[in-house]
Amino acid sequence: MAAVAEGGRCPLLAAARGAYEAAFGGSAAVAAWAPGRVNLIGEHTDYNDGFVLPMALQLGTVLVGSPTRDGTVSILTTAPGADEPHRVQFPAPTLSHPLSPGQPHWANYVKGVIQHYRGGPVPGFNAVIASDVPLGGGLSSSASLEVATYTFLQQLCPDDGDLVAKALACQQAEHTFASMPCGIMDQFISVMGKESHALLIDCRSLDAVPVPLCDANLAVLITNSNVRHALSGSEYPTRRRQCQEAAAALGRSSLRDVTMAELEGGHGASVGSRHCGVCCRVYMCVCAASRSRLGEEVYRRARHVVGEIERTARAAQALQDGDYVTFGMLMVESHNSLRDDYAVSCPELDQLVAAALEVDGVYGSRMTGGGFGGCTVTLLVAEAAERAQQHIQEKYSGTATFYITKPSDGAKVLPL
Ligand code: GLA
Asked: Does the CA dihedral 398-404-408-414 come out positive or negative?
């Protein structure tokens, strides 16, 4: 059976400090840490103004470093799986010489955050990155690097301390320097995470409600499929576009404003005050026309999102009530919808979910994150955790890695 990682932060800090001394001489003056995340439910809803319910992990990224006087930024990464070279050097940006993305890929997250940092100008600095979030595993290693970088920069040249603006700046970094048009979930939870709680985030208002998740009889098991299919990059923007297309066709600015009743049709399912003159004489309605108007594929994408937004709100309530059975059922519905309607699962994730659901004491299981590989998340009674890992590994055709983790606080400065 694969090892369980608890994700302690101090060994990571010690490793980063040691690597800093070896690479740059002298000791680092500043250290910051930011967590990865697992999303319990609410997948592909953030860029549709919907709800998400993630929790921050105990796994995260550390940045240690010191300012320099020569206006040069030098960074070394020790993160397993980062592309070569592991050390980069570039001039701190100025108004006339902004940074731009390039190679290696890992450095783009750091450069993007420096460029979008709200408290600049950023001075030159030396830094070392260490991380125990598996890279490309769907646990937001990139958001954790972005938010750790931002938190580190806050120590070098403070900004106004606005946390929502911090998350948005990190999201911008990902959009412009990693060409990933992500929603706000990952950066938001990495900044705002709360120990012993999941966060119900309204991705339209950016309000967040903490939902307790600290029952000693309950465990959250993350299973990494250790596969990442090539589609993951190209399919995400396509899904985003299809959602916008569906909302526009239904006369709404986002799918958050569409109900299942409207989408599924039926006379009187008004989506606006315009007269359509086709299927319903009074109001423009989606009736049977919605499916054919959107086209089958876009209709299914919209059906996932609209259903998932409803499910997430219900799941948060179930968790609040300690109703894990309902929560687990909603997780399974979410997975099925992601597999069948949104088409972002893959055989490996389906296998892991199916295997988890065979275990006594498992409430629910689903893929988590963008999809096409990465991880599943399983909610189960704590005493079933050991046998669940054994069973899942026996049934899985690949090699899985397991993490049992508790909800952690968001990014923080680490005292040195
Ligand atoms: C990725 C993105 C998030 C979110 C998820 C899917 O993790 O970074 O913004 O869209 O996929 O829920």
From this structure: negative
Q: Which of 39-48, 215-224, 278-287, 355-364 has the lowest mean pLDDT?
A: 278-287
Could you read off the pLDDT of 51-102 as tens digits, one per residue?
999 999 999 999 999 999 999 999 999 999 999 999 999 999 999 999 999 9
How far, in Å, from the CA of 308 to the mean position of ligand 1? 14
Ligand 1 mean position, distance from CA 44 (Å): 6
Distance CA(110)–CA(164), nearest Å, equals 19
Ligand 1 pocket: which of 45, 146, 182, 376 to mutate (most atoms within 8 A of CB): 182
Please name the residue whose Cα sits nearest to atom 11 of ligand 1. Answer: 370
Q: Are 324 and 315 in contact (CB under 8 A)?
A: no
* pTM more than 0.85: yes
Distances (CA, A) of 241 to 48, 169, 245: 11, 22, 6
**DSSP 3-state percent helix, strand, coil across the chain (nearest 5):** 40, 25, 35
CA 2 vs CA 134, 353, 356, 386: distances in Å = 14, 17, 15, 11
Which residues neighbour 245 within 8 Å (Cβ) at sequence distance 6 or greater?
Answer: 294, 298
Strand intervals (E) in 80-190: 87-91, 125-131
Residue 274 tokens read as 């315009």
Is 186 assigned a catalytic role? yes
Query: For residues 83 and 100, what is the distance between their CA atoms, to the nearest angstrom?
Result: 18
Determine which one of 132, 186, 257, 341 is catalytic. Answer: 186
User: What residues flank ligand 1, with Cβ below 6 Å?
Assistant: 43-44, 46-47, 182-183, 185-186, 369-370
Calpha distance 415→180 (Å, rounded): 33
Name the CA radius of gyration of the chain, rounded.
Answer: 22
Identify the band that residue 283 occupies on the pLDDT scale cut at 50, 70 and 90: very low
Residue of 41, 46, 228, 238 to test ligand 1 pocket, by largest number of atoms within 8 Å of CB: 46
